[in-house]
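Subject: sequence -> structure tokens, single chain

Hey, anyone have a minute? Need the predicted structure for the following. Not urgent.
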Amino acid sequence: VMNATFTKGGNLVIPAFSVGRTQEMLYFMRRIKTEDLLPEYRNFEVYIDSPLAVEATEIYDDKNLRRYFDADTLELINNGINPIKFDNLKLAVTSDESRVINGDPTPKITLSASGMCEAGRIRHHLKHNLWREECTVLFVGYQAEGTLGRKIIEGANKVNLFGEEVQINANIEKMQGISGHADKNMLLSWLASIPQKPKVVFVNHGHDTVCDEFAKSIENEL
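Reply:
Had a minute. Here:
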């Protein structure tokens, strides 16, 4: 996706949740750079445009948190490699810094919140990039029904942003399997490990049909 977008001279816009998902994507991008997986565009720029995402990213540099890192992460750090930072990673905190991103014609990656495009700075980046055929919007998280993100991935031809109708000409992509949530088996394993079994379990996060099926699984297996 990055290669195709940069080849066309476009921007890659990624709506991403500020805590967790943004840092996960930075990890992938750092690997792309350090493993030279995109030799045609080694110096690609990445902007984090979300004050909360910037703060969350800085937390990972706190040396007091290293006891929480796994062996692979510690090995990277001990070898002088920051797992989620790299050359040409730029942080936009102020509104002025955010506006500069869309004023720069250089093809780039912008990670911005909110993850479902309902609020925040991502809406400005969509307004500036959705109408451009050379650009790509890459979704890396679940888009709930009724959200702007859901409308886009379901093939809307145009959307309303800041009172303006914006035509969708950009390439729309979705990365499956990028989730911060446990799956069915992990949740059942977690429930089974509770020493004192709960009398009631509320299943309240997900599609209605999925919630119903998972509730049946809890009853049947536990």
